[in-house]
Recover the amino acids of this structure.
């Protein structure tokens, strides 16, 4: 597509956030151009584990302690609504992406973590009216063919999806609604032009009335104010060959999305074609050919610790991607100096990027940003000026989380 010279809204980044926003805006009649360095879905949105999760990275007690009951309830409710929104979009747009409400199972890596699940389940029910089910160690075999864990907490409201098909479906839906998508168009900077914006890209210049930045873990020098507020973290995945049906059933009799309770966590699931997919922060730093190879070996060891019965299973695929953490581990949306943004999903972006993309798209149309609870969170930069421009920050953060796993 040739670049348009003028649009109502320019969206920077064609992942779940940018495409959901573009879809909503285009449906309401706005002229929208999505500008993307590579191709639609190139970033984390097509490479993730496909877990469509309720909740946020922070647990119920931390949300309540930090934000108070009213805002914490709104934030948690938004996370539950975000799963409904994905389901609704998939249905309404006819996206063929294996969405299934299979539920998720959090697994206690240490006995004390299961006690934490008991307290968490009680808080979720009492404060957020959200039902979960505790699975004590003795009953865990009904859920997972592994003896490694000390119990689990099951949330039936979560789902699973094929993320690459989902983001491709969002791209199609946004185009059908009238948005235009422009690959190979890296935005170099954002310039103010009176009340409007001027965006020089590697393919030419676009002028826009409003700008939404949706670049998550790939946020770069074009938006320094956002870059300073985010930590990009590498996450890696391997998948086995397609497994015999009986073995797949033994590994995961109920087909849940699963993750353990450590800071350096493993997340894993079966794919519809019966591969075991397992991911984790094996290397922490953003992906490249070397870190993908090194992470694949670490992840395979992790997989065998959970499932020794996979010792003869071939690992057929390995890949990595970058996700983003804000320094308070919360998603953020709003505006800085008139430029809108939605990012910081901390590994919960499949559902929440859909939600915040849609919400920001609607707010740009109406000017009503306050209804979205994430716009009310303070969005601070890194403490002591630490940020991704400094090479030593990520190893330091990784060491900190390893220490937490050891003491916690
Ligand atoms: C390996 C891995 C596993 C994950 N697993 C899960 C999971 O199971 N469940 C879950 O909920 N979340 C998961 N996540 C997180 C989730 O994938 C992300 O939070 C979500 O996809 C973010 O979507 P996004 O659209 O905001 O960003 P992205 O999909 O990363 O898209 C950002 C886009 O912006 C583009 N861009 C950057 N700068 C510019 C510029 N200057 N000009 C133009 N374009 C630009 C990039 O090229 C990129 O395509 C995982 C992430 C990874 C990496």
């Amino acid at each position: 597509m040739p670049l348009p010279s003028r649009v109502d809204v320019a969206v920077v980044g064609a992942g779940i956030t940018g495409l959901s926003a573009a879809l909503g805006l285009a449906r309401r009649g706005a002229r929208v151009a999505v500008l993307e360095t590579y191709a639609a879905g190139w970033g984390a949105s097509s490479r993730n584990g496909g877990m469509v999760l309720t909740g946020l990275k922070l647990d119920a007690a931390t949300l309540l302690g930090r934000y108070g009951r009213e805002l914490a309830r709104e934030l948690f409710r938004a996370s539950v609504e975000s799963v409904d929104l994905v389901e609704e979009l998939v249905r309404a747009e006819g996206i063929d992406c294996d969405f299934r409400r299979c539920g998720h199972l959090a697994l206690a890596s240490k006995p004390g973590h299961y006690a934490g699940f008991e307290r968490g389940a009680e808080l979720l029910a009492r404060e957020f009216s959200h039902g979960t089910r505790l699975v004590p160690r003795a009953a865990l075999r009904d859920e997972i063919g592994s003896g490694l864990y000390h119990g689990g907490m099951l949330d039936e409201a979560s789902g699973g999806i094929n993320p690459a098909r989902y983001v491709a479906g969002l791209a199609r839906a946004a185009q059908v609604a009238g948005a235009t998508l422009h690959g190979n168009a890296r935005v170099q900077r954002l310039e103010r032009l009176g009340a409007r914006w001027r965006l020089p890209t590697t393919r030419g210049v676009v002028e826009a009335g409003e700008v939404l930045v949706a670049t998550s873990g790939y946020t770069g020098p074009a938006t320094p104010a956002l870059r300073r507020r985010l930590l990009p973290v590498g996450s890696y995945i391997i998948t086995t060959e397609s497994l015999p049906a009986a073995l797949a059933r033994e590994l995961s009799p109920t087909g849940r999305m699963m993750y353990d309770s450590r800071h350096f966590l493993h997340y894993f699931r079966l794919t519809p074609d019966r591969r075991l997919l397992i991911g984790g922060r094996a290397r922490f730093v953003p992906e490249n050919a070397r870190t993908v190879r090194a992470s694949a070996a670490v992840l395979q060891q992790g997989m065998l610790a959970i499932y020794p019965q996979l010792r003869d299973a071939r690992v057929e695929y390995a890949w990595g991607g970058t996700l983003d953490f804000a320094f308070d581990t919360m998603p953020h949306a709003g505006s800085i100096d008139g430029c809108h943004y939605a990012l910081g999903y901390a590994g919960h972006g499949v559902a929440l990027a859909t939600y915040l993309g849609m919400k920001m798209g609607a707010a740009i149309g109406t000017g009503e940003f306050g209804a979205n609870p994430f716009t009310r969170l303070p969005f601070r930069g890194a403490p002591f000026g630490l940020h991704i421009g400094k090479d030593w920050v990520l190893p330091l953060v990784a060491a900190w989380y390893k220490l937490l796993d050891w003491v916690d």
User: Anything to note?
Assistant: The longest helix spans residues 60-92. Residues 108 and 116 are 9 Å apart (CA to CA). The chain has two domains: 1-103+158-229+328-377, 231-326+386-408. Residues 1-103+158-229+328-377 form a domain with the FAD/NAD(P)-binding domain fold (CATH 3.50.50.60).
